[in-house]
Amino acid sequence: MIRPLGPIVASPDVPAAAWAALPASRRPLVLAPSDASGWFGGRALVALDPVEVAATTLAEAGRALDAAHAGDEQALVVALLGYEGDAIVARYERGLVRGADGWRAWGDWGDEVPPEPGDLAAVDGPLLADERSDVSQADYCRGVFDVHEAIRRGDVYVLNLTYNLRGRPTCQAPTAFASLPAASMGAFWQLTDDRALASASPERFVRLGGGIVEVHPIKGTRPRGLSPAEDASLAAELAACEKERAEHVMIVDLERNDLGRVCSPGTVAVDPLMTVVQTPYAHQMVSRVCGLFREDATVGELLAAAFPCGSVTGAPKVSAMAHIARLEAAPRVAYTGSLVVALPGELDSSVLIRTMDVHGDEVVYGTGCGITIDSDPAEEWLESRLKAAPVLGDGAPPVALRETCRVVDGRAPLLEWHLGRLAAGGCGPTLIARVRAAAVQALKAWREPRGRLGITVTPYGEVDAAVDAHTSSLAVPGGPLGVLVPAPLPPLPQNAAKPADRSPWDRALISARPLGQQAILTHEGRIVDGSTANVWLRLGDRLVTPPAGPAIAGVARAVVLAHASELGLRAEVAQVTLEDFERAEEAFLTNALGGAVALRGRGGPAHKAVARLFARLWSAQWRRDPVPYTLLAK
Asked: What integer pLDDT is reported at residue 624 of this predicted model?
């Protein structure tokens, strides 16, 4: 431990986050472990007033950390290792540490009086407003299929696919840190006057002390239950899940290999293996891989061997990272990098997940999932939204939302897609769990082979789910005729979710009904949306649909975009003009109740391929007897 220790300056009851409220000019670093499994065995620690801060390389950061760990100077060195390989390193010579008797100053303060803690009140609600995502639900699901293809080729066998959420901070960074859920590797670092990291990471990267090096990979997630019994059931389901266990073991094997490069031969072991632990919003599967650190090895060599952590790349690591660079829409920057802190004789670090990277008036927050050949794209998207709960909150949508799902033989085949859209529209994990439970109850009560499941969620957290016998509006003998109806741009909830109030679409539909047609909403010379379905046009070799918004981001639309390449189709989102509508070789509509239906006389091979896709998805056997998606287009 760094010394000397000075007098008590605050009560042990003062939370570690209170020191984050000190002026940004003091560049506070705050380690706030929630329990004894966290930083340095559960030691809350603060560093202030760095004497040196520099942007550098991973190799240079390793040398600075190695010097601090060797105890050459009584100083603390901290490094932010960005996922892409850059680093920021700072050296601190004083701060505070909490013991059983209170917070004590450490280091050389001279005649200066150590500061008093700030006063932070946590906020109740989202920490990120005006949320926007680097990818849509359809984009992410299409990425999952791309990973499946890479696995089939033998390029990788698991890959962590991620994206960034961006938005406006609803409070100052120190307050955001105090508002995040408690975490074993919780940390705050004020890097500059207008940039700070506020992290609620549950995952340790590497810890080095007493000649032992260890890494604690996390792989496998389930939401928390609505009751103790359901919570226990979800934890047990995670522990027993074959897919999650296989994914976890792949990463454990990768970490064993990484540590084997810097540990004495025969000393690398795993204990415990696949323990399920709880966070406030999720169950996670964790293991501990450890070994005897070679006497001639350095911290730099350790980082070169193990960074980035395999749990956030996939395996094999080099190939997985190459595919990540190709598939992901934006750089990860700090997300999935590491915060590494070295003291004389000790080094500990976190994996920067569940982390807010605050740049002035913008927050960047990364989320994602590990993808294996057994991954269901819609389930992975929904899990990625669950992992954003620390910043998005656990609330209700700003307006009432409506989902309409096809029911086949007692199940809703696309339910996970609908839940994912509700999550993107503002429904938190608890509300999603309640929606799922209500849908399951409604499906159990329905005795007919076919039906329509309607789900409504209100801003007050009310949930209604019921199944009826209504058929799709697209079920018109000979196919619907499209009537162009000029209309104002309809208002949409966040992420183009489907509102319960569909007045603009309904008005257009009513105006077309005297002709017995399907309304196509237009505005200023372009196609906006269909009145009950999304519009698709085949223009040469392109399959085009209008952007959402102003179109509703239909579940069936997302399914088509995600599966298009497997169907041999080049699908894209683009503005569609009235001239495009008239000259298109094909024109068809999709929704989650009717699937794909061609406008009368305007079908063709693209529509047939999409219709066959939905026919397969409706099949009760599709999960148990999958067919390669490329066969569906034949």
From this structure: 38
| pLDDT, average across residues 477-494 | 84
How far the first Cα of the chain sits from its last, in Å, is 67
Domain co-membership, 441 together with 584: no
Interval 197-222: pLDDT, tens: 999 999 999 999 999 999 988 877 88
Per the structure, the complete domain to which residue 489 belongs is given by: 482-633
- Asked if 128 and 391 count as a contact pair (C-beta separation under 8 A), the reply is yes
Q: How far is it, in rounded angstroms, from Cα 359 to Cα 564?
A: 37
Distances from the Cα of 66 to the Cαs of 37, 233, 338, in angstroms? Answer: 23, 45, 16
| Angle separating helix axes 137-153 and 377-386, nearest 10 degrees | 120
Q: What percent of the chain has pLDDT over 70?
A: 96
Cα–Cα distance measured from residue 71 to residue 20, given in angstroms and rounded to the nearest whole number: 27
pLDDT per position as a tens digit, 29-75: 999 999 999 999 999 999 999 998 899 999 999 999 999 998 867 79
Please indicate, yes or no, whether residues 545 and 579 belong to a single structural domain of this protein: yes
Q: Residue 420's domain is classified under what CATH number? A: 3.30.470.10
CB neighbours (10 Å) of residue 284?
Answer: 19
Contact 275, 220 (CB under 8 A): no
Sheet with 586-591: strands ordered across: 570-573, 542-545, 534-539, 586-591, 595-598
Q: How many domains does the chain have?
A: 2
Tally of CA atoms within 13 A in the half-sphere of 212 that contains its CB:
8
Amino acid at 472: S
Q: How many CA atoms lie within 13 A of 595 on its CB side?
A: 21
Predicted local confidence at residue 630, as pLDDT? 31
**DSSP line for 496-552:** G--BS--HHHHHHHHHHGGGT-EEEEEETTEEEEESSSEEEEEETTEEEE--TTTS-
| pTM of the full structure | 0.89
Collapsing DSSP states into helix, strand and coil, what is residue 50? coil
Find tokens 């077309």 and name the residue. 512
Dihedral angle computed from the Cα positions of residues 251, 254, 256 and 261, in that order, rounded to the nearest 10 degrees: -150
Q: Residue 183: what pLDDT?
A: 92
Tell whether 539 and 579 lie within a shared domain: yes
Question: Each residue of 496-524: pLDDT tens digit?
Answer: 888 888 888 888 788 777 666 788 888 88
What does the pLDDT look like over 396-444, one tens digit per residue? 899 999 999 999 999 999 999 999 999 999 999 999 999 999 999 999 9
Question: How many CB atoms within 10 Å of residue 240?
Answer: 10
Which residue, 468, 490, 513, sits at the end of a domain?
468
**How far is the C-alpha of 606 from the C-alpha of 273, rounded, in Å?**
48
| Residue 262 identity (one-letter amino acid) | V
pLDDT score recorded for residue 628: 33
